[in-house]
Amino acid sequence: MPSIKNLKKDVNYVLSDIIEECYVCQLINGDAKADKVEKIIDEAIATFDALIVKINTKNVENKKKHFKAINAELEKKASALLAKIAKL
Q1: What percent of the residues of the chain are helix, what percent strand, and what percent coil, each to the nearest 5?
Q2: Which of the 8 DSSP states describes residue 31?
Q3: In angstroms, rounded to a whole number, what is the distance separating the alpha carbons of residues 37 and 40?
Q4: Is 30 left (phi over 0), alpha (psi -120 to 50) or beta?
Q5: For 86, phi and psi rounded to 5 degrees?
Q6: Total-model pTM
Q7: What are residue 61's phi and psi, to 5 degrees?
Q8: How many structural domains is the chain composed of?
Q9: Domain of 27?
Q10: For the residues of 59-82, what is the DSSP string, one character each?
Q11: Among 14, 25, 49, 50, fewest CB within 10 Å belongs to which?
């Protein structure tokens, strides 16, 4: 089981890289797709907030299972966000 500190770092690094990729996409495409890029950034920020709240939950019955589920959710959401960026 990864430590909570490392899990928080993973969430931060993965989602910040996705946001950075959004800004690169916006620079390349100009203002043509700015609205779509902003929606993806907002979704990444909302995902970050939701995952951090789940990580900080104190009353968890099975911590190992809980953190594995959070890690799996991070991978799923990150893949979905990257797929949206690729469509742009």
Answers
A1: 90, 0, 10
A2: G
A3: 5
A4: left
A5: -65, -30
A6: 0.89
A7: -70, -50
A8: 1
A9: 4-87
A10: --S-HHHHHHHHHHHHHHHHHHHH
A11: 49
* Cα separation, 72 vs 78, whole angstroms: 10
Question: Does residue 46 contact residue 80 with C-beta atoms inside 8 Å?
Answer: no
Full pLDDT tens readout for the chain, 88 residues = 558 899 999 999 999 999 999 999 988 888 778 889 999 999 999 999 999 999 999 898 998 999 999 999 999 999 999 999 999 8
**Residue 61: Cβ within 10 Å count:** 6
Q: Which residue has the tokens 């907030």?
A: 49
Rg, C-alpha atoms of the chain: 15
DSSP 58: -
Confirm if 7 and 73 have CB atoms less than 8 A apart: no
